[in-house]
Amino acid sequence: MKITAALAATVLGFASALPATQQQSPAKRQTQGVVNNCSKPSTMAITYDDGPYQWDYNVNDQFNAVNGKTTYFVNGYNWGCIYSEENVSHLRALYENGHQIASHTWGHVHLTQLTNEEIDTQVQLVEDALWKILGVVPKYIRPPYGEVDDRVVQHLHDRWGLVVVNWSDDSQDALGASDQEILDMYNGFAADSSQSHLVLNHAVHEPASHLPQIYVPQMQNAGYSLETVASCLNDNPYKVVGGYSPRDDSWTCVGTPEPGAAQ
Ligand SMILES: *[C@@H]1O[C@H](CO)[C@@H](O)[C@H](O)[C@H]1NC(C)=O
Ligand SMILES: *[C@@H]1O[C@H](CO)[C@@H](O)[C@H](O)[C@H]1NC(C)=O
Ligand SMILES: *[C@@H]1O[C@H](CO)[C@@H](O)[C@H](O)[C@H]1NC(C)=O
Ligand SMILES: [Zn+2]
Description:
Layout: H1 2-11, H2 14-17, E1 34-35, E2 43-49, H3 56-65, E3 71-74, H4 85-96, E4 100-103, H5 116-134, E5 136-138, E6 140-141, H6 150-160, E7 163-165, E8 169-170, H7 179-190, E9 197-202, H8 212-221, E10 225-226, H9 229-232, E11 238-241
Parallel strand pairs: 1-7, 2-3, 2-9, 2-10, 3-4, 6-7, 8-9
Antiparallel strand pairs: 5-11
Helix pairs in contact: 1-5, 3-8, 7-8
This protein binds 2-acetamido-2-deoxy-beta-D-glucopyranose (3 copies) and zinc ion.
């Protein structure tokens, strides 16, 4: 019943399928329909891509310790399968702690190289998985590599009602930045908390295992409000909200498109 509702919402186009009360006003957008910053002053949306992954637990603990919120842009089938027991309990813990769960495509693909139909598969599979696992349909997507063009952005908006998010600042953890280089970036932010920032980090790179305990409390003490991406844009994180579903035979990555990349 719930799955049918979610599928209907996505297949028919969410704007027409959702009751008016669940429709959200569009988030503030920049650069050809792509959001790359928070719209509320003194807010910081610190984000983590490419999970669920083991280091999400550390990130989760550090944000919870200061009552801050974060955002995870997750894949379905990249380093492993989102439907594994471990990943399912993991995602539910992050979600129950009030963090935002958003899409990063099923297989971490280069969206600009796909047809609209292939993009639909990449979006639909993540929506189905998060609907089954969490009972939510994400409203936000971050394109892998920050790669979108006008066609892709327009398709994600018009066909899926998605808000496309890039970032204002890159920790460069995926590019091999040292611990000190990453902390220097955050130290720079601490100098002026009247600014806002939307910061890219990765859950699958080793800095996530031990640096959040330093910079998360530091950013809060500097005066930033640590918020989810949706919250720092005064928006809702999900197109649809329901409840968890029980596991069944459809909870598998077998038969879905292969991962596009390992990071
Ligand atoms: C799922 O779990 C495995 C370990 O079981 C992990 O390596 C992987 O990163 C997780 N996430 C995804 C999206 O596969
Ligand atoms: C996302 O940010 C990166 C780094 O600034 C940039 O290279 C890329 O073009 C951006 N993508 C979009 C769609 O703005
Ligand atoms: C993000 O917004 C702040 C204002 O709050 C601005 O100072 C900063 O330059 C913006 N960053 C980018 C990359 O647009
Ligand atoms: Zn990524």
